[in-house]
Amino acid sequence: MADIDLFSVGKTFTGTPALQDITTRFDDGEFVALLGPSGCGKTTLLRILAGFEEPSSGRIRIGTREMANAETGAHIAPENRNIGFVFQSYALWPHMSVRRNVSYPLEIRRLSKSAIATQTDAALASTGLEDYADRMPSDLSGGQRQRVALARCLVSDPCAVLLDEPLANLDVALRASMQGVFTDFHKRTGATMIYVTHDQAEAMAMADRIAVMDQGRIQQFDTPQILYERPKNRFVAEFVGRGTVVPVQEFKHAGDAHLARIFGTEVAVQSAQQEVQVSHVCLRPENLTISENGDLRSKVARVTYMGGKYLLETVTDCGARLFAETRARFDVGAQLGLTITTPWAFLED
Amino acid sequence: MHVIQQNGSSRSEARLFNTILLVAICLTLAPVLRLFVEGVTYQGSPSFVLVRDVLAQPSTLSALKHSMITAGFGTLVSLVLGAAFAFLVALTDLRAKAALVFCLMIPMMIPPQITALSWTQIMGPSSVLLKTLGIAPPLGAPQPLYSPQGIIFLLGIQHMSIVFLTLRAGLRSIPQDVVEAARISGAKGLRTWWQVVMPLTLPSLAAGTAITFVTALGNFGIPAMLGIPAGYATLPTLVYQKLAGMGTTVLAEVSVLAMLIGAVAVAGILLQRLCQSRQKLHLVGSTSRPLALPLGAARLPVEIALWSVVVAILVLPMFGLMATSLVPAYGVTLRFDTVTLASWYEVLFRQPVTSRAFANSFGLAAGASVTLVMICLPLAWLMERRKTRLARLFDSLLDLPYALPGVVLSIAMILLLINLPFTEATLYGTIWIIFLAYLARFFAVMFRPVQASLKQFDPSMDEAAQSVGASLYRRLRDVIFPLSAPAAAAGAILVFLTAFNELTVSALLWSSGTETLGVVIFNLDDSGETGMASALAMTIVFVVVVLMALIQLLSGRLPKGVVPWQT
Q1: pLDDT of B424-475, one tens digit each?
Q2: How many domains does chain A have?
Q3: What is the ipTM metric for this complex?
Q4: Which residues pair with A310 in a beta bridge?
Q5: Domain range for residue B199?
Q6: Is A57 an 8 Å CB contact of chain B?
Q7: Using CB atoms within 10 A as the burial measure, which of A143, A148, B319, B467 is most buried?
Q8: Residues B285 and B394 placed together within one structural domain of the fold
Q9: How many angstroms separate the CA atoms of A119 and A132, rounded?
Q10: Contacting residues of B for A78, CB less than 8 Å apart
């Protein structure tokens, strides 16, 4: 188990930058999610950590070992890093039984036969696969295959486990139960886990901290609550949760309270202490209440039933699209008033 | 997400890659290069004197003319037969397609000298089969196959499978919805075929034609068995006759002839590449279900017609071969009281040359298969991962020794190995020159199926092994090799099959003690021992069909594109 440190890591593919200047630290035992739209560089970052790719600039340290350094050209091959990797396609070897798939890392480490058997049994038991040990991967369901992949990467006690969209190929129900498997596993082993996903619900549910990535950079790296409640910039605000970012017309301090003029109305906002100026606010459904005499007049453009409540997509008179939640049913075209309560404000550069 | 992997692999991988690539280049491309150098030097300096001299000889010009005529018209015969079969098998609802395809592949797998031998056994005045049936032409009548027409006809039959396979592969890549769209628009039957299917298949038809022409041009067995008795020499037989008659003194001269065949062949290959690159444009849309246009009432007659052709070109000659091998002396009528296994016994158990040739051919074929697996498997895998310039260049040239006519490769091998650099030693006259020639010739046969299977290989299989700590050697042994083993096995069987009864290359490279089976059959027939030649040929046909059946059984476990008759 070890911390992972990245120092201004960059990667270019034939001239196109895929990662730019990533400096960050993943703590020992942490469950980190790398979240972002496709093409944001999250998988590249994971593959650099694993050693499948070499960084074009910067260096990487896992524990006390320097794994890659673009300046000196030092690069430890993936097979010598003692890292676990779970692939989206599971990458089970189809010609080996479940047991052999799981025990293979131990074979390579030249453990004694009895040690291999005990540790393999333990790994199979911890993923609930005892009954499937002698089956072939092709006889297993998607969730079972993913558990074999997990068991395989645990068995050798890696210093970090890297997971590349491991649930992307599973159906919704299975995904939820596998999330439980991953969380339990993380609690039990205390392994450092880096988890790549494009699904924010997945990241929110499991990760201690989430690194939101876009265009090859980490936009914000915080706990799920902070990401949701206090986004640093427009991208994070819009990507995480259902948020609409609108500009602030005027901003002033009134004692401890911060007031901002939004759509011509003055509302109290929250912002980071150090911000002396803000430019935008993030309006989420919970910041909007529907009332007959709300200041913000808008018209319902779309109604989606969410089970127990409705999500309204409304268009304000000045053309902004806002999302509001309600238990009462509204028809498309209905006029309603919205009141904004303490949204999060930030300075967009 | 998955970008081309240039980095992240260990140094040992780079070392291994460079070593194997170097070995492969030396094996396949060095001989071709050596031949080229020989043709354009005269007494140690670059010159075209030799080229001019050889090209001015009347025998060269007539052989070139004969080669073009027989290969050209032979291709035409292949085209008509192969295209008819391909269209009917690929587009319609014929029954028992798999069996039909399997039978159509057999002519390609049976060595040409045996094809020639078997056909001469069902024609001409001394045909045992015709005599037995009482319809033999009178004694003294000419053997009709000892003629340009005979060569053309047999070349056509021998290579129809090539046209059939390329065209069928092209037809299969036509999306079904294209044809369905034509039918829903009201196009019927032949109109669909003529206006939609035909234009889409022209590139593959052209590619198949070009490669058939190249193969027919390089064919040695058929013009040697039929043309030499008729005094009708093609370029490959001219090279053979010169080298057999005068030995290595005419090496420089025949290397020019070899280059001449090579030049025509390369033109054909380039044409084929051009056609195939144009074909890629059409590969859009779903091709999941094969087309099956209903033939309706015409189905049974068509099926009968197709199977009759198969019987005529496959079964009938085999009967001729069988009949000849079962009579005590050539020309005797086959009756219950004349049936004898004497020829079989003599050739299989008494003649020392046969058992020697069996051992040689078996050893060469098995050795070449195993060696090529060892080279091609890691090479194909590393080439998938490291797309360097040199690797891509090699990828585009590695078919050359297989596509070039066998005599061209033989001459190149002799030139390369007659004086080993820095020593007095020579490999000419030893079995090793044949072995190395086989490695060069069948490299592509082994490499392409393995490459096809590795292209479909999920790179994360290897990365998973890498992430759990497996070294390059362990990954090759435990993951890459087992997963591509079926393709490697199919490739190895194909190499074995073609090398086992190969004649064209060994005809110029054998010497006493290093005869191959192909050479023995050719020599037996040449010396009038037709009965024994037929018995040996039947044995080889049997081995070929058994091995083909083996691949057929394996085919369920193979990725698409590995079994040549199932692409």
Answers
A1: 777 888 889 999 999 999 998 888 888 878 887 888 888 889 888 888 888 8
A2: 2
A3: 0.75
A4: A305, A326
A5: 66-232+268-292
A6: no
A7: B467
A8: no
A9: 16
A10: 8, 463, 466-467
